[in-house]
Amino acid sequence: MRAVLLNCTLKKSPEPSNTDSLARVVVDELRAKQVEVVEFRVADHSVPPGVVTDLGDGDEWPRIHDELLRAEILVVATPTWVGRPSSIAQRVLERMDAMISETDDQDRPVAYNRVAGVVVTGNEDGAHHVISEVAGGLGDIGYTIPGQAWTYWNRGPGPGKSYSETDEGHEWAANTGRTMAANLHAVASALAANPIPA
After folding, report:
1. With the C-alpha atoms ordered 66, 50, 45, 163, is the resulting torsion angle positive or negative?
2. pLDDT for 161
3. Helical pair 61-70 and 87-96, crossing angle rounded to 10 deg
């Protein structure tokens, strides 16, 4: 089984990413279940705005898209900015919009029989809103969203430390992340055994 992590932090490598730190819990648990995980920090790639799979002229989205089609599991990880998913997460969903009209050899949308989940960080509240926006978009595209296919960490109301600057709430976020990985793996396995029919 294969998975793709799309880290939608606004930070380019090698700058440390709080979102990557929490997503690492989910990735490690998937790997413990023998899932091969391919990771992209989207900010490191040329992904221009658009709603088609290939914009040509240096567009690196087609390589990411190909990995999405090779994977049964997708994890979208995003920080919270102004109470919303990052602009990169929104761009990823817009580029994935093209998948709605792409079909497999049985004429099903290509995201069918694939599962997806969401990781959210931020030193402000709004995690459930961000989860619902990203998961809702992924469901529209055709992904199956299992129950509790998310984890998050946030500081709560007002200014404060970021995820990597404190241990507060880490145990809960990590336990929830491991549950997220288990649920994604379980539902992906069930769909592999009993696919959604054409």
Report:
1. negative
2. 86
3. 70
Q: What distance in Å separates the CA atoms of residue 195 and residue 197, rounded to the nearest whole number?
A: 6
Tokens 């990735």 correspond to: 27
- How far is 76 from 150, CA to CA, in rounded Å? 9
CA distance 98 to 94: 8
Q: Say if residues 177 and 151 touch (Cβ distance below 8 Å).
A: yes
Cβ pair 89, 76 in contact under 8 A: yes
| 57 in Cβ contact with 154 (< 8 Å) | no
| Separation CA 11–CA 19 (nearest Å) | 10
- β partners of residue 39: 5
CA angle 131–24–64, rounded 5-degree value: 70
Residue with tokens 């998913």: 85
Any idea what the Cα angle at residue 60 is, between residues 63 and 138, rounded to 5°? Answer: 65
> Which one, of 117, 173, 103, 122, lies nearest residue 146 by Cα?
117
> Could you read off the pLDDT of 10-52 as tens digits, one per residue?
999 999 999 999 999 999 999 999 999 999 999 999 999 999 9
Which 3 state secondary structure label does DSSP give 119?
Answer: strand
Please state, in angstroms and rounded to a whole number, the distance separating the CA atoms of residues 35 and 2. 5
Output the six-digit token pair for 58.
Answer: 């240096």
